[in-house]
Amino acid sequence: MKKYRIGVAIATYDNAGTIANVVRRVEAITRDIIVVDDGCTDNTLALLQQLDVPPHIVTYKPNRGKGHALVQGFKKAMQLGWDYVITLDSDGQHFPEDLPKLVAAWTQHKDALIVGERGTGHLNMPRGNTMANKFSNFWFTLQTGIQLNDTQTGFRLYPLKRLRWLGITTSRYEAELEMLVFAAWHGIEIVPVKVRVYYPPQVERVTHFRPWADFGRISLLNVALCFGAVVYGWPMRLYRKIKNR
Predict the structure, then answer these.
(1) Could you name the CATH architecture of 6-243?
(2) Which stretch of DSSP H or E encloses residue 67?
(3) I want to staple 143 with a disulfide (CB 3.0 to 4.6 A). Which of 20, 126, 173, 229 is the partner?
(4) pLDDT attached to residue 245
(5) Contact assessment for residue 10 and residue 36, using Cβ atoms and an 8 Å cutoff
């Protein structure tokens, strides 16, 4: 039986206050870790290098955006011979202790994209997050015919070999939505798994989400994806249904 390699990739930008703790918690589960320093201007790189067991580090300047950072992480993972990669955020929002939940789902769906579903109603959850997620969920269903409760989660398990077919065009916050839509269009099963989430109090929160700029880019992306759904996504969905009869 083939042995598969699953590692963790963390994209980070100026999260020096949380990144070391996140990596240590991941190390308690696996030593296969990549951290992508997305042009950090704080002491993130120094903190990573000072860890007892430093992760694989990808670093560059200037900041290019989360989407670009994730792609660099995927490329590094393939160079290391990994078959699958789990992504999680560097701000401490996700619980590394929930990594086994995604792996357990993977054992039943080895070609799927596993997404950690955060749910709503959590303590200190920003109101804007709930509205943005509902907005994103609506458009995702329209573009793919698939219903998901959390299309903005960054806690995911990706099948690397199947990602090679995805032509991602965006490079920032909206890239994760584009990856999800493209995966659905290419017939990759998307499996949600309930995970925990932590939102710090407002005074402690570090976010690089720029409401007007990022929401504007997401809106433009959704317009493009709706067009893509008409000319490619929905026809491919129909083709697969007919083929599998």
Answers:
(1) Alpha-Beta Complex (3.90)
(2) helix 66-79
(3) 229
(4) 79
(5) yes
Q: What is the CA radius of gyration of the chain?
A: 18
Q: Is 110 helix (H, G, I), strand (E, B) or coil?
A: coil
Q: Side chain identity at 72, as an amino acid letter?
A: Q
* Cα–chain center distance at 220: 20
The H or E element spanning position 128 is: helix 127-144
What string of DSSP letters covers 5-40? Answer: -EEEEEEESS-TTTHHHHHHHHHTT-S-EEEEEES-
| Cβ pair 192, 106 in contact under 8 A | no
CA 172 – CA 15 distance, rounded (Å):
17
DSSP state of 231: I
Sign of CA dihedral 114, 119, 122, 128: positive
- Please choose, from the candidates 235, 91, 220, the residue with its C-alpha nearest in 3D space to the C-alpha of residue 154: 91
Give the C-alpha separation, 143 to 21, whole Å.
Answer: 38
- Which two structure tokens, joined as six digits, stand for 166? 């995805």
- Least Cα distance to 74 among 58, 62, 95 occurs for 58
CB neighbour burial string for 47-85, b if at least 16 within 10 angstroms, e if fewer: bbeeeeeebbebeeeebbbbbbbbbbbbebbeeeebbbb
Cα separation, 44 vs 20, in Å, equals 8
- Does the pLDDT of residue 12 top 90, yes or no? yes
What dihedral do alpha carbons 76, 79, 83, 88 form, nearest 10°? -10
Global pTM reads 0.92
Please list the residues that pair with 37 across neighbouring strands. 12, 59
Spatial CB neighbours of 239, under 8 Å, sequence gap ≥ 6: none
For the chain, domain boundaries: 6-243
